[in-house]
From TrEMBL:
GO terms for molecular function: RNA binding. Keywords: Cytoplasm. Residues 91-169 form the PUA domain. One of its GO terms (cellular component) is cytoplasm. Its main location: cytoplasm. This is PUA domain-containing protein. The keyword Chloroplast does not apply. It is found in: Cytoplasm. It comes from Paramecium tetraurelia. Pfam families: Pre-PUA (PF17832), PUA (PF01472). It comes from the Eukaryota. SMART domains: PUA (SM00359). InterPro entries: MCT-1/Tma20, Pre-PUA, PUA, PUA-like_sf, Uncharacterised_CHP00451.
Length: 178
């Protein structure tokens, strides 16, 4: 999804209402967020957003100098660095070692990579945002959206299981180091 970020708008400050709505969306989607809310959004922080001019209608949110999340349709999706800092924020899905290089190249997660030896499929619903981990790796390598319920994937382990939306090395990841 983030191959190039050439079409970013100039930053705009989020209003108090916008920040309140963003926090509420985080709390609605991620139960663990309530525990870390003040650390992610400190008082008197400079919170701004950048719109990505593309077919995705994505908005990237920055708190002070750290990229925190992006919005896609009705979802608020945390930045991978935020997931590294707070690993309990997302449900963890683990792929086998053979899938790692494909995911780091931007491929979606296929069901066989989650249910084979080395993979681990945790309970999750279709449409839910999850962290993608590699076999033997400590930190998440990607963030994705479940394309099916975990029970359905176990019953019929074929095809796509997770749509990859952000991964190590993509343009959003690289933007956080500029």
């Amino acid at each position: 999804m983030f191959k190039k970020l050439e079409d970013l708008s100039k930053p705009t400050l989020l209003s108090k209402t916008g920040v309140k709505e963003l926090k509420q969306s985080f709390n609605d989607q991620y139960p663990f967020f309530k525990e870390i809310e003040d650390e992610v959004f400190p008082k008197k922080a400079n919170i701004q957003s950048f719109k990505l001019r593309s077919e995705y209608k994505v908005e990237i949110v920055q708190v002070d100098k750290d990229y925190i999340c992006f919005t896609k349709e009705d979802l608020v999706i945390p930045h991978l660095k935020l997931v590294h800092k707070f690993p309990d924020l997302l449900i963890k899905q683990q792929v086998d070692a053979g899938a790692i290089k494909h995911i780091l190249s931007g491929s979606d997660v296929l069901a066989p990579g989650l249910i084979s030896q080395g993979g681990q499929l945790n309970p999750a619903q279709k449409g839910q945002v999850v962290g993608i981990y590699g076999e033997g790796k400590e930190n998440a390598m990607g963030i994705g959206i479940m394309t099916a319920n975990s029970d359905d994937i176990k019953k019929d382990p074929k095809g796509h299981a997770i749509q990859l939306v952000h991964h190590l090395g993509d343009a959003l990841w690289q933007l956080s180091f500029k």
